[in-house]
Amino acid sequence: MAKLFIRYALWFLLLIPAQAIVFNHAILFNVAVPLVFLYLIVSLPVTINTNLSTLFGFIVGFVLDIFCDTPGVNALCCTVLAFIRKPIFHLYVSFDDDLAGRVPSTQSMVQTTYMKYLLTMAAIYCTMLFMVEAFQLSNFKLMTFRIIASTIYTFILIYALNLVTHGRHEQH
Fold first, then answer.
1. Which pLDDT belongs to residue 168?
2. Hey, CA dihedral for 57, 8, 48, 2, is it positive or negative?
3. Ramachandran area for residue 117 (φ above 0: left; ψ -120 to 50: alpha; else beta)
4. Alpha-carbon distance 128 to 115, whole Å?
5. Quick one: DSSP state of residue 110?
6. What mean pLDDT do residues 30-59 have?
7. Could you tell me which of 77, 93, 45 has the C-alpha nearest to residue 154?
8. What is the DSSP annotation of 115-138?
9. What pLDDT sits at residue 171?
């Protein structure tokens, strides 16, 4: 447990400032924002208590809100995402294959299953973020385009980060 805490503390210290300083300014075509910090929530072990993962999600979002001057938006979205993480995971992986505490990754899951899980999590977060941020449906087309573009951009970067950290290993 101490090893897990240290690993996530290091990821936290790396990804939150990187998101605030680099990735929030790496906007493609003034539409797509990469949300690489989601790797912190997406890669939590499945066997972690839901209350603990939800608290962690809130802390991640709250600290990001402080860095990015977005009052409560990321805290809300990260808390909800951390809360629904386990049910989303079990949409793609049966309860019998609970990974025994390992983190969801291409190393511990079938690659296509991990891709579906990651894409779903990114889509949910981007949808919540842009809907809460806009808080209106006046420009529905632009908001939908931002959600789709940011989901794809986030998915690609988190998937690449996963491949760098865990390597490519497919199980059958």
1. 54
2. negative
3. alpha
4. 20
5. -
6. 91
7. 77
8. HHHHHHHHHHHHHHHHHHHH-S-T
9. 46
Burial pattern 19-37, b for ≥16 Cβ within 10 A else e, equals: bbeebbeeeeeeebbbbbb
Angle at which helices 2-21 and 50-68 cross, to 10°: 30
Indicate the angle between helix axes 111-134 and 73-92, nearest 10 degrees.
150
- Overall average pLDDT of the 72-100 stretch: 85
The residue assigned the tokens 């409560």 is 72
| DSSP 8-class letter at 21 | H
Residues 6+ apart with CB under 8 A from 8: 40, 44, 56
pTM of the predicted structure, to 2 decimals: 0.88
Q: In this predicted model, what pLDDT tens digit does every residue of 53-79 receive, in sequence order?
A: 999 999 999 999 999 888 889 999 999
Please check whether residue 150 is in contact with residue 133, taking contact to mean a CB–CB distance below 8 angstroms: no
What is d(CA 49, CA 57) in angstroms, rounded to the nearest whole number? 12
* Pairwise CA distance, residues 137 & 131, whole Å: 8
In this prediction, residue 170 carries a pLDDT of 44
**Residue 93 structure tokens:** 């992986």
Percent of residues, the chain, with pLDDT higher than 90: 51
CB 69 within 8 Å of CB 133: no
